[in-house]
Design goal:
The chain is α+β, with helices and mostly antiparallel strands. 40% of the residues lie in helices and 32% in strands. It is built from 2 helices and 4 strands. A 4-stranded antiparallel β-sheet has the order 1-2-3-4. The longest helix is centred in the first third of the chain and has 39 residues.
Length: 108
């Protein structure tokens, strides 16, 4: 094999490996997010009250989030995500407005 062709072949091999690894990375990232959030929900006792739960990908942040609606709070949607190993909770009301301040203290 000519010496001029080797770098091209090595570059193509690395490119193929990276392209093949990306879906695996997304799957692993999604699974880790779901496991960590599920553990947090079980530990806090919130897992018994879930009406609807789904995992969504936030393209703005590049992270997966778990979207949960609870049976006793149907007007609020909770988004849980993992940031630097910690679970961040964001709450939105039925008008898709983020809940902040004193109202948030009455929620989960």
């Amino acid at each position: 094999m000519k010496k001029e062709v080797r770098p091209l072949i090595y570059t193509l091999i690395v490119l193929v490996v990276l392209i093949a690894a990306y879906p695996t990375y997304r799957l692993v990232s999604k699974t880790i997010t779901e496991i960590k959030i599920e553990r947090m929900l079980v530990k806090s006792g919130y897992d018994q009250d879930i009406a609807n739960k789904k995992t969504v990908f936030d393209s703005k942040t590049g992270r997966f989030e778990v979207e949960i609606t609870y049976t006793n709070e149907p007007d609020y949607t909770y988004y849980y995500e993992i940031i630097e190993g910690h679970v961040l909770t964001t709450v939105y009301d039925q008008h898709n407005v983020e809940v902040t301040g004193t109202v948030q203290h009455d929620l989960k």
